[in-house]
Amino acid sequence: MKKNITTLLILTLLVTKLFAAMPFFSGYAGLLTNLSLDENGEDFNPIVTTETFFNGQLDFSGVFILRGEFFLQTTDITNQNLFDDAFTENAFFKIEELSGTFFIKQAHSTSYINLFLGDFEPIGSDIFLRRQFGIQPISSPLTESWHSLSGASVYPFYGAGLSYTLHFEKPYALNFALYDNMQNDEEENLSIHTLNFDLRFATVQKNFTIDTCAGLAFPLESQDDTGTDVVLLVRRMQVHAGINMLLGNKSQFSLFTQAGFNKLTLSPSASEDDDTLNKLSFSDLYFLVEPRFNFRQFSLNFSIFNTPRDSAGDMLYLKRMVNANDDVLNLLGANITIYTDHLYLSNINATFGIHTTFAYIDSDLSQLESNIMSFMNWNYKLCITPYTEIPLLGGTFNAAFSMSIFDFMTNWKNAMLLTIGFKNQF
Predict the structure, then answer these.
(1) What share of the chain is helix, strand, coil (3-state, %, to 5)?
(2) Pairing relationship of beta strands 91-105 and 109-118 according to DSSP bridges
(3) Residues facing 187 on adjacent strands
(4) What does the H/E/C string look like for 291-353?
(5) Beta-bridge partners for 410
(6) Cα separation of 343 and 386, whole Å?
(7) Closest Cα partner for 375 from 332, 418, 340?
(8) Could you report the per-residue pLDDT of 111-160, keeping only the tens digit for each?
(9) What pLDDT digit, counting tens, does each position of 250-302 carry?
(10) Closest by alpha carbon to 89, among 99, 78, 102, 76?
(11) How far apart are CA 94 and CA 184, in angstroms?
């Protein structure tokens, strides 16, 4: 009885403290417009699509935080038939994150209990480091995304579950996550519930930042080989892992590294001829190695990367390479970025840069094993993208113009893409 009374008193005190003051609201929103030309038409028919995200949070006295993040993408808004049918699917809506976080402060640590739905603090994104340690963004400019505040990740997932983070007095954090997500079974042509267990460690030091995660996933089946319903059946186990790391002095020279893989499926009954089990597919492997050189007037980043389709499709400067072809599984390539944030327009400090990206869009390593010169027949792209970021009206105005050099020779309309966006924090 005493234990029940004590527990009730503690819960009462927490609820009283939670609603003792009005919650503090803050948010972040962005709107991006993509402008291209009709690749098949003879006239100059523009294609205009938009991407919008909104992130908002309610902070209840530092005891509980409620977050919501939403993404909306439209089809071509210049299409004359867009509004003819009220039931036409003219936009894609996605809940990127719904989460609630409870704070429990101890003498030498702080605990965070999270309940979430969506792609919550994905590995590869620096959102976990920013929330836990309050650091500035460290992700590569090449992987910038307008889908959410988190940005692109090593292996995107969409699940529902809970996580527990223990943040020590020193700059170390441990995270345990348990969540369920859906995976497509190509053989059975259906979606299967998958139970995931993840362990995560992160720290921020003077010249060293790391965020690493590894986990196991268990697809849960409800029927055996004879088609009989069962309570629970686990035939396979999957492994996933990722790392986000920055070494060196950010004001001079640093090395940024991302790596990981989405799904290594292990099965004791797999045959030697099965290429999908007990083997890591190159199309599921993600890596980005980026040395960064900071000079007095400009900065230079050189990147070598392999990006799976799901990750590249969320990235502002790489999505066009994969979205133009449904058969693309991954991008293997290199990028050089030169930019300066010392460009002054009156009293405004603007940023201007150029991405030069070369990538193979159908890199089949199985052919490379039999013929080392087969990579010469791979389909490749070369894109040059100047971009700018200008502080405006309390937010940031973004613009980029991308040109695919090789496509320009055959179909110049399909070779160009103009993006204009605006982000604002409130």
Answers:
(1) 15, 55, 30
(2) antiparallel
(3) none
(4) EEEECCCCEEEEEEEEEEHHHHCCCCCCHHHHHCCCCCCEEEEEEEEEEEEEEEECCEEEEEE
(5) none
(6) 14
(7) 332
(8) 999 999 999 999 989 999 999 999 999 999 999 988 888 877 888 888 99
(9) 888 999 999 999 888 887 766 665 666 767 878 889 999 999 999 988 999 99
(10) 76
(11) 18
Site of tokens 């938009």: 50
Q: From CA 170, how far away is CA 212, in angstroms rounded? A: 18
Return d(Cα 145, Cα 124) in angstroms, integer.
Answer: 12
Strand pairing report for 395-404 and 380-392: antiparallel
Distances (CA, A) of 153 to 119, 261, 319, 399, 421: 9, 11, 13, 23, 21
Kindly report the pTM of this predicted structure. Answer: 0.86
CA dihedral sign of residues 85, 92, 159, 191: positive
CB atoms within 10 A of CB 385: 22
Beta bridge partners of 423: 30, 396
Residue with the larger pLDDT of the pair 292 and 404: 292
Place of tokens 């629970």: 232
* Contact indicator for 335, 305 with CB cutoff of 8 Å: yes
**389-403 burial: b if 16+ Cβ within 10 Å, else e:** bbeeeebbbbebebb
Maximum CA extent, the chain = 81
- Residue 337 tokens read as 């970025």
Nearest one of 150, 164, 178 to 244, comparing CA atoms: 150
